[in-house]
Amino acid sequence: MATDPMSVDSSAMEPPAPPTNATDEPKYGGFTRFEIELEFVQSLANPQYLNHLASRKLLTNPAFIAYLDYLHYWSRPPYLKYLTYPGPTLKSLELLQQEKFRQEIISPDLVQALIMEGMRAGVEWHRDG
Amino acid sequence: MDKYLDARFERVEKALAILIDSIAKFNPSEKLADDLATADRQLSKSLQELERHQNNHARIQQLRADTAALDAQTKDTISALWGMRKEVKNTATTTYPPTGPKYGFTTAELLNYARRISRNTLPPPGITNGVDMNTTSSFVASAASPFSGGGVKEELPSQDAQTPNANASFNNGNTPAPTTAPTPTANGQPANNASFASNATELPAHLKPYVNPTEGGIFLPWPTEDTIRSGALASYQQLVNNGINPKGYDPEEEEKRKAEEELARKEAEEQARLEREAQEKRVREERERLARERERARQEEARRGNTVGGVSGSPTTGGDMQKKKQFTFLGGDDDDDEDDE
């Protein structure tokens, strides 16, 4: 969604601090950076959203790719426990590191396949458990 | 042992020789014969002892051999072990890539997390996304079987080719594109009607959602488009679209600020209104006071005019006085004329 001009050499930022009770955090449109990045990284779990990003040519933008790499901090504590869609989110983060995936997610067939796979995995993982 | 035996032999030989000698001298003696017999018995005993000795010796030999064999075996085993150990140590083992850092957590944290994510990771009961939960068949196979879609198993006799297709269309209607998608015509009303007519236990498609609320529901293990569209990022984009720099902008704060401004403005208006009213009141009082004063002055003048009577002598003044007198009589119009003056 972000349309801010992005440059490759934008300085690498530290991950935002996990939420505390402090209220003096800078707000972006009423939300903290933590909230916005959490929502974004979870949106990546949605194949259609990935397709949308690809159609905006964001997945070929080096700065955006660097941002995806930066978002890997969500796979570590203390951030990990805030993911409410942990499986698909982390899988998407990993897949997005592959250039081939970034190129092919523009294809509706792949999106459809991912959706079917996700829906099936969503109900099958607990079938025998 | 040899000496022992030799001594016995010698004794037997001696006894025998003495006996033979005595016999040869034709002087046999019973005592000599007894000696021989004793010597012979002792020899036999010695021979038995010898046998036992030999047996023991053989046994010792055998045991020694056994010991040696066992020693050799032990040595072999140890050397094999050593060799094995060396081999094991020299074996090139597969080095697995590090499995990543490990993080500690408590059971309470884990359970909390599980409770928090369960809403998004476990489909509600009855929703199967078209997967047949009663068998281990794959998704494609279950999509192909007509009566397993909506989470309810329906016992239906097999029908002609068209009707199962129609059932499939409303059982799996919301699961996107099953691989064996029914033809579009199967979705049509006639097909459904046919199914209804041909099998009385099957509900028509439009009634199914009332019976089973999860009919055709799907479960997605990720945020849906609606969720994304109504989230923080969307409102952020909205701000950008409106030309507001979202950095440091907080709609809540903004709202609060506006409300405060509104309040301040209202207060200021109220203040101004009060002041205006006070002002008006003052002006009115002043006017009334002036009017009263003029009235008093006029009455004074009139009284003076009556007593002095045309002192001024000027006709205008006289006319004016008359008019005023006249107005005094008329009373009610008095104020208007005062204003006109």
UniProtKB/TrEMBL annotation, chain A:
Any one GO BP annotation for this protein: regulation of DNA-templated transcription
UniProt keyword terms in alphabetical order: Activator, Nucleus, Transcription, Transcription regulation
Disordered: region residues: 1-27
Coiled coil (residue ranges): none
GO cellular component: mediator complex
Subcellular location(s) of the protein: Nucleus
UniProt-recorded Gene Ontology molecular function terms: transcription coregulator activity
Pfam families listed in its UniProt record: Med31 (PF05669)
Job of this protein: Component of the Mediator complex, a coactivator involved in the regulated transcription of nearly all RNA polymerase II-dependent genes. Mediator functions as a bridge to convey information from gene-specific regulatory proteins to the basal RNA polymerase II transcription machinery. Mediator is recruited to promoters by direct interactions with regulatory proteins and serves as a scaffold for the assembly of a functional preinitiation complex with RNA polymerase II and the general transcription factors.
Assembly information from the UniProt record: Component of the Mediator complex.
Family named by the database record: Belongs to the Mediator complex subunit 31 family.
Name of the protein this chain belongs to: Mediator of RNA polymerase II transcription subunit 31
Provenance organism: Apodospora peruviana
UniProtKB/TrEMBL annotation, chain B:
GO molecular function: transcription coregulator activity
Biased composition (Low complexity): 171-194
Biased composition (Basic and acidic residues): 254-304
Polar residues bias: start-end ranges: 159-170
Keywords: Activator, Coiled coil, Nucleus, Transcription, Transcription regulation
UniProt superkingdom: Eukaryota
GO cellular component terms given for this protein: core mediator complex; mediator complex
UniProt KW DNA-binding keyword: no
Residue span of region Disordered: 146-196, 241-341
Compositionally biased intervals (Acidic residues): 332-341
Family: Belongs to the Mediator complex subunit 4 family.
Subunit structure as annotated in this protein's UniProt entry: Component of the Mediator complex.
Protein name per Swiss-Prot or TrEMBL: Mediator of RNA polymerase II transcription subunit 4
Organism: Apodospora peruviana
Recorded name of the encoding gene: MED4
